[in-house]
């Protein structure tokens, strides 16, 4: 039996992992996150399995090494929470699930935008109170609008295709453009400044790197169309929250749909309904009528959870046997 300590566990992780890996794994599910402070709880495990908000910095990785851990399996695609140099130096193999369901994330980004634009969330609440009025529910047609897709990897490409289906004009930006795909879609790559100036909606599909940190900040927001809608299902730190709040207050930003938030760690995935949330910027954001927030759930579909389970379990077994991780999953 392979002993695996799983961190930041939710009910669905338990259900999927236990069902698929019943015969081969001895799971230790922890609800708290992995960090240097909690790494000692990995003692006795062969490997650890983590998610987006576990913090695998140098101290944590060195602590894991001292507890005999040789493999960290990320059950997500993004890996900005791992110090890869420190992992290499500690001789710890890091694997991830590079593409579990790009459809899940792309579809959620469009769902968020449509909910926000057509005010479905407000209508739902009204109608539950037998309030059938329409005041304040005016949206806009998506057909004919210009959508700026920032990042045209797996998720961005699917989102671009969906928006094309709505009849939108698409502007693309990526550090490594894929001209062949863009040609087939009938869309063009433009410099970020042109996308910023030309888009009615800007939707983010880039990873968080030093280059993309606070990509949406004061400067970019000064150059957008008045009333621009911004969608972020990628990583919270792509947006400077203080600048976004200023943009919302001035009306420069007309709507914001977020599945990720700059300081989501310790807040998203938790039930804080009986506590006092200390993050004033998040509470301010939620208070705007033209902001819609979900708590990092874009990935949460059955298809994605199946794929995450399949890839993570296969890698855990293979690496424990001294074999190679699945192609493209090793960092
Ligand atoms: P991908 O690696 O297929 O595509 C990322 C694209 O961004 C690539 O085309 C790359 O060239 C581009 N890029 C990288 N750095 C750039 C820069 N500085 N400027 C412009 N373009 C740049 O990744 P994928 O699968 O499309 O995922 C994108 C992001 O979505 C992930 O990095 C992750 O942070 C986020 N994500 C969010 C989830 C959620 O549940 N909310 C779930 C899965 C991923």
What does this structure look like?
The chain has 331 residues and is an alpha/beta fold. The protein has two domains: 2-100 and 301-320, Rossmann fold; 102-293, Rossmann fold. It is 37% helix and 15% strand. It has helices at 11-20, 58-66, 84-90, 102-118, 120-128, 154-165, 179-185, 192-198, 218-223, 241-250, 280-287, 302-320; strands at residues 2-6, 25-29, 47-50, 71-74, 93-95, 146-150, 169-173, 188-189, 201-204, 228-232, 253-258, 291-293. The strands form two sheets. It has a seven-stranded parallel sheet, with helices on both faces. Strands 2-1-3-4-5 form a five-stranded parallel sheet, with helices on both faces. Helix 1 (11-20) packs across helix 12 (302-320), helix 2 (58-66) runs parallel beside helix 3 and helix 4 (102-118) crosses helix 6. The two termini are 25 Å apart.
Based on secondary structure, the structural category is alpha/beta
- Poorly predicted regions: none
The beta-strand count equals 12
The hetero compounds bound to this protein are: 1,4-dihydronicotinamide adenine dinucleotide
Task: Summarize this structure briefly.
The chain is α/β, with parallel strands linked by helices and 331 residues long. The protein is 37% helix and 15% strand.
């Amino acid at each position: 039996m392979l002993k695996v300590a799983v961190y930041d566990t939710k009910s669905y992780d338990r259900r999927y992992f236990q069902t698929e890996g019943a015969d081969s794994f001895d799971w230790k599910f922890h609800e708290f996150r992995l960090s240097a402070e909690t790494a000692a709880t990995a003692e006795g495990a062969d490997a650890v399995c983590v998610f987006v908000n576990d913090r695998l910095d140098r101290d944590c990785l060195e602590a894991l090494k001292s507890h005999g851990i040789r493999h960290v399996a990320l059950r997500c695609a993004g890996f900005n929470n791992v110090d890869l140099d420190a992992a290499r130096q500690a001789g710890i193999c890091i694997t991830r699930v590079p593409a579990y369901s790009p459809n899940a994330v792309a579809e959620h980004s469009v769902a968020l935008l449509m909910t926000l634009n057509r005010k479905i969330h407000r209508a739902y609440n009204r109608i539950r109170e037998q309030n059938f009025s329409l005041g304040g529910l005016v949206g806009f047609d998506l057909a004919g609008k210009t959508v700026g897709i920032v990042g045209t990897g797996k998720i961005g490409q699917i989102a671009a295709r969906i928006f094309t289906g709505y009849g939108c004009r698409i502007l693309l930006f990526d550090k490594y453009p894929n001209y062949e795909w863009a040609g087939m879609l009938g869309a063009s790559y433009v410099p970020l400044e042109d996308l910023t100036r030309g888009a009615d909606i800007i939707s983010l599909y880039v990873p968080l790197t030093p280059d993309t940190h606070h990509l949406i900040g004061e400067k970019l927001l000064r150059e957008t169309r008045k009333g621009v809608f911004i969608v972020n299902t990628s990583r919270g730190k792509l947006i400077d929250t203080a600048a976004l709040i200023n943009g919302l207050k001035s009306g420069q930003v007309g709507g914001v749909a977020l599945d990720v938030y700059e300081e989501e760690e310790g807040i998203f995935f938790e039930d804080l309904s009986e506590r006092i949330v200390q993050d004033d910027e998040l509470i301010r954001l939620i208070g705007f009528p033209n902001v819609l927030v979900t708590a990092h759930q874009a990935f949460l579909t059955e298809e994605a959870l199946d794929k995450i389970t399949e890839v993570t379990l296969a890698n855990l077994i293979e690496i424990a046997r001294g074999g190679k991780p699945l192609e493209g999953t090793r960092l």
